[in-house]
Amino acid sequence: MGPLLFLFRAPLVIIWIASSLLSVAVVYPFLPLSGRNAMNKSWSLALMKICGVQVRVHGQPMMSGAALWVSNHISWIDIFILSSIRCVAFVAKSEIRQWPIIGWLVAKAGTVFLNRRERQAIKTVSQQMEHRFTRGEVLGLFAEGTTSTGFDVLPFRSSLFEPAIHGGVSVQPIALRFYHRGVRSDYAAFVGEQNLVQNLCVLISTTGIMVEVDFLPVMSAEQCQEMGRTKVSAHAHELISKAVRMKQPPGPG
Where are the annotated coiled coils located (predicted)? Predict the structure, then answer.
C-alpha cells in the first residue's frame, strides 16, 4: 500500500505547495493580520488531510488573546498541527529558514527566527516576541530547541520564557504524543540523519498517523511574574513530561 499511497498523495502535496506559494506571493501582501491568520490555519488543515494525519485535541486551548504556547517537539509537522488549531507564529532556529519551500512558507507566516551564532540573538528575538504579544498574537515555542523521538522531553531552555513574563501574557504548556496505527510510535519523528524530504516521503507513504495534543493548565500572567522564568520553565517541563509519558491515548477530549 505504501508506494500506491505515495503516488496518490505526492501530487496533492505538490499542489498544496504550489497553491501556498502562489497565495503567499499574490494574495498575502494585501490581507490584514486576521486574513493571514485564517489562510495559515486553512493551509495547515489542508496539509493534515493530505498527509493523513489525524489530530485529536484534549484540554482547553487559549483561542484568543496573546499567549505563549510551549510544546515538546517531534517533527517539522508539529508546526502545522498546532497551526491547524489556532494560527501560531513560532519561535524557531534560523536553520529552518533554509528548509526547501517549507522554510520560506513559515517565514512568510511570521516565524521569529533565532540565530544562535549571533551574540545578541536572544535580545533581538525577545524584542520581536514582545512586539507580537502587543498585537494579541499567540507564539509557539519548542523549548527543547530540537526534535526528539517523542517518548520523553529533553531539557528546556528558559531564556525565551522571559518575553512572555515581561510582556504580561499567559503561558500554556502543550504535550504532543504521536501514534502509528494505534501504537505509540516514533515513526514520524524527524530525528537522526533524515532530511525534510525523506521524512515527508515516510509520512505520506503510510496510514494511521494520529497525534494527541494535550492542552495543559494555563499559567496566568500573574503566576508567571511571581514564579520567574526558571520556575515557569521547570513547571511547564514537568507538566509536559508527565503527559508525554502516558502509555495509552486518553478517551475523546
Answer: none
The CATH number assigned to the domain holding 24 equals: 3.40.1130
Grid cell listed for 212: 494527541
Task: Check residue 189 and report its DSSP letter.
Answer: -
Distances (CA, A) of 179 to 12, 58, 176, 243, 248: 23, 15, 10, 14, 10
Q: How far apart are CA 196 and CA 191, in angstroms?
A: 10
Q: What are the backbone angles phi and psi of residue 109, rounded to the nearest 5°?
A: -80, 0
Per-residue pLDDT tens digits for 179-191: 999 999 999 999 9
Identity of the highest mean pLDDT range in 84-93, 107-116, 232-241: 232-241
What domain range includes position 169? 2-244
Question: What's the per-residue H, E or C state across 142-168?
Answer: ECCCCCCCCCCCCCCCCHHHHHHHHHC
Residue 19, domain member (yes or no): yes
Query: Would you say residue 253 lies in a domain?
Result: no
- CA nearest to 225, candidates 150, 164, 151, 155: 164
> Does a structural domain hold residue 251?
no
Length of the chain: 253
Q: Cα separation of 216 and 219, whole Å?
A: 9
Task: Please name which of 116, 124, 83, 86 lies closest in space to residue 102, comparing C-alpha atoms.
Answer: 83
| Total count of domains within the chain | 1
pLDDT tens per residue across span 136-157:
999 999 999 999 999 999 999 9
Q: List C-alpha distances in Å: 203 to 87, 125, 155, 192, 248.
A: 23, 32, 27, 16, 22
Under a CB-based contact definition with an 8 Å cutoff, are residues 130 and 66 in contact?
no
